[in-house]
Fold this protein.
Amino acid sequence: MTRQNSKPHEKAQIAVLVSGNGSNLQHLLDYEACGKLAHGEIRLVISNHKEAYALERARQAGKEALFLPRSAKQPEQFERELTQLLQAHEIDLIILAGFLAILSPDFIQAYPNRIINVHPSLIPAFCGKGFYGLKPHEAVLARGVKVTGATVHIVNEIPDGGPILLQKAVEVREGDTPELLQRRVMEEAEWILLPQAAELMSQRIVAGEI
Ligand code: GRF
């Protein structure tokens, strides 16, 4: 990171931040393994939860996988250590893939245009503070909208408020539960969009555009 002024890497060096199952991470790993992540390389996977299955997925793909504890009382410590890791690995792009902790405005501002996130709704609907996990899907069903989806956006200091990179609509069906809808949004949108966005951002980084 902070290599904006030095010679760009041949491939953008990517760190993926995770907290749980890691199905989004898995699709990034598969995308890279089949050669579609042409301008990027997943260098590092970091979880704030020790038991996250995402860490196992990363190791099975031969990636460096690290648990970095984050206490709600001292988030600064987590961000200090995270920054050190990102710098030591010369990371160009940070992907939040089901990362359930909030990053501070100071941290985010240190990496302008270098952090992306996948959110399971069509931003600006059903997003922002508190809309994580099943919450957006519960709200979609409660409001009765007929179309939802997923959004990949650049992260700025406003939760889910940064510039939108990619978006895909998903149908809400009769009889949907939050769980069913979450699964369909992942299958039909998140798992497709996030790898595409990783490649798009990697292209821009190696071209020196951002
Ligand atoms: C899922 O709830 C997904 O909708 C959201 O974050 C969670 C991540 O799941 N974007 P996974 O850890 O990638 O499987």
About this structure: The chain has a mean pLDDT of 95. The helical segments are 23-33, 53-60, 75-88, 105-109, 135-143, 178-206. Residues 146 and 178 are 14 Å apart (CA to CA). The pocket of 5-O-phosphono-beta-D-ribofuranosylamine is lined by residues 20-25, 54, 97-98, 118, 120, 133, 182, 186, 190 (CB under 6 Å).
